[in-house]
Design goal:
There is one protein chain. With 169 residues, the chain is of the alpha/beta class. The chain is 27% helix and 22% strand.
Amino acid sequence: MGLLELTALTTIQRESWVPILEQTDALLVWGGNVMYLNYWLRASGVAEILPTLENLTYVGVSAGSIVTTTHNCDFESNLAWVPEGSDMALAPEQTLGLVDFTMWVHLDNPNPIFADHTVANVQQWAQDVPVATYIIDDQTALKVRGDHVDVISEGNWRRFAPYGVSPLA
């Protein structure tokens, strides 16, 4: 098992770490701040390489999942942690867009920081989003292969159709 520190990659020659990433079976990207992850995945060059790694399994946890989607649902809370004048704040809703949906995580989580992660709040937010939106709890995962999404769950989750599309779509 190896560790890839995104913030350090900009100081290392790409030839030193790209071959290692190309041989990697699974990449675990932990949570935290979506804006931070988005910024450093792009600045390091990892974001441009990820779509070319056909044999890599990307495992995102919390913000590590959200950053792969089309929209940063957490941008308002993320902004509270970004230093004034930081380049991270230039595109707060931006994510990598590796999948064609967006998601909210931690549904039903009792931690007060996730109090707004409710089905009703996400459904209202999703009304303005042009792609499908998933809200998942901590016992749910999304498995994506190409355009196909499987929901693996022992908990609660919902999928909201893209803005302007019938909920049955």
